[in-house]
Every structure is written in structure tokens, then in C-alpha cells.
Amino acid sequence: LAGRSERIKIVVVSRLVYRKGVDLLAGIVPRICKQFPNVDFIIGGDGQKKLMMEEMVERERLQERVEFLGSVPHAKVRDVLVRGHIFLNCSLTESFCIAILEAASCGVFVVSTRVGGVPEVLPEDLILMGKPCALDLTRVLAMAIRDRMKDADDERKGTGTNRKFDPLESHQRISRMYSWDRVATKTVHVYEKVLKQKRLSLLQRLARYKSIGPFAGYVACIIAISVHFFVAFVEWCQPRHLIDVVQDLRPFKIADVPCY
User: Fold this and answer.
1) Cα–Cα distance list, 70 to 53, 74, 97, 204, 217 (Å)
2) What is the pLDDT of residue 2?
3) What is the mean pLDDT of residues 5-20?
4) What is d(CA 209, CA 225) in angstroms, rounded to the nearest whole number?
5) Residue 20's closest CA among 49, 42, 55?
6) Three-class SS string for the chain?
């Protein structure tokens, strides 16, 4: 992107279904295309809402502004993401949303709905979020587009040292944040924290189960009591001290492995 005369690409890679906010997307695309003549959309994915999107493009005469890729194999997602400058996620519900993580790792700025666990996935300077509403997402997406335009103008003028978003830096930060070593370390930390906590007695656990509701609480208590006595019976049949304990594996070198 080298200035306002260049095209800005908005990338969407998602299943085209209601839960992924395709109805919101259908309201955002014509508004953004009308507001920014140099913005195009690349939409990857398939689903029952694809026909609705194609009808919207036909109705608004945006055939030259919106490209449909159809179903995208996972191995090709990276190739699609790097074509864009902004990744748009319109999901109505999300637990983690791996899609925005992949986009940021590819050096693409993210605009998303503020739902579920989305606010916890990326640093604030790599994402802009809005309400799951076409008008609010259009507003937020317009802000991101103007920021990308300003970065492009600054880069073209040679004053891009203070650019708001650096694709390479985004990739490097995500690589550090979500490395498998870091995930393993955090997982071990959670288990160690749980092991250090004092184990609750049966009565304490029943009190907690009872607090979930007048009916569900009693059902949970009955299940907990049943499980408790079943475990006690199994332990009576097979005492814990008679069970062999697997020893911890010690680190070894390849040279220590015998060859036959």
C-alpha cells in the first residue's frame, strides 16, 4: 500500500453462516464501499449465507469490489490473509477465535466484534473491536481503514517511523506470545497452582453444588454423593497404596539410547 490511490483489501475468511455474523457483513460491505472508493473485499468461505452475500453484491453492483473465493483449504488460508491489509471478523459468538490470531500472525490488522473471549486474544494495538451491530462495526472498520491510509501516506513520504501498525512486528509479537513453550509453561503453572490448593471436604463441595440452583443443585449433590461412594468402594476393592506409580521420566540424550 503506497498511498490513497492504492487499493485497500479487507479480508474475511469464515464459514458463511448466521453465527459468524454474515448478516452484519452484508450490511457493512455496501456502507464501506460507498464511503471508501479505494477499498475492496476478499471473502473466503462457504455456507448457507453465501447466496445472500452474492445477492447483496449483485443488488449493490459491487462485482468489481467484492471477490468470493469459496471454500479455502486450511493450508491456503495464509496465502489469502497476506493479500489483505485488514481482517474483519463479524462473529456473534466466539470462545477464543483462532481466526483473528492467524490474521495477526500474518501481519494483518484485525477488526472484530467484541464477543466472548475475543478481547483476551490480542493486544489492544493489534485490534479494534465494536458491538455486534452493522453500524458500529462500520464505524470501527472505517477507523482502521483511515489508520492504514495514514500509515501508507507516512511511508510514502518517508515519515513512517511512527506508523500505528507494523505487520512484521505484529507477526513477531504473536510468535512470542503463542509459542508452544509458553503454552506448556502456563499449563504446568495452572496444574501446580491447583495442586497447592487445599482439597475441599465432601460437605464443602456439596455446599458449592447446592448453590447452582434450587433444582439443579440437589441433582448435582445426588450425583456427587453417588460418585463419592463409588470411588470409595473402588478404592476399598483396590487400595491406592497397591497401585504402581509411574516414575517421572528423566531427560535423556539420543546417545544414551541403545542401538540394536
Assistant:
1) 12, 13, 20, 54, 47
2) 42
3) 91
4) 11
5) 49
6) CCCCCCCEEEEEECCCCHHHCHHHHHHHHHHHHHHCCCEEEEEECCCCCHHHHHHHHHHHCCCCCEEEEECCCHHHHHHHHCCCCEEEECCCCCCCCHHHHHHHHCCCEEEEECCCCHHHCCCHHHEEEECCCHHHHHHHHHHHHHHHHHHHHHHHHCCHHHCCCCHHHHHHHHHHHCCHHHHHHHHHHHHHHHHHCCCCCHHHHHHHHHCCCCCHHHHHHHHHHHHHHHHHHHHHHCCHHHCCCCCCCCCCCHHHCCCC
Length of the chain: 260
Tell me the three cell numbers of residue 142: 472505517
- pLDDT tens column, 55-82: 999 999 999 999 999 999 999 999 999 9
Which pTM does this prediction carry?
Answer: 0.73
Residue 135 neighbours by CB under 8 Å, 6+ apart: 27
- The mean pLDDT of the chain is 89
Task: Calculate the alpha carbon distances from 1 to 28, 85, 91, 149, 171 in Å.
Answer: 22, 8, 27, 8, 18
End-to-end CA distance of the chain: 60
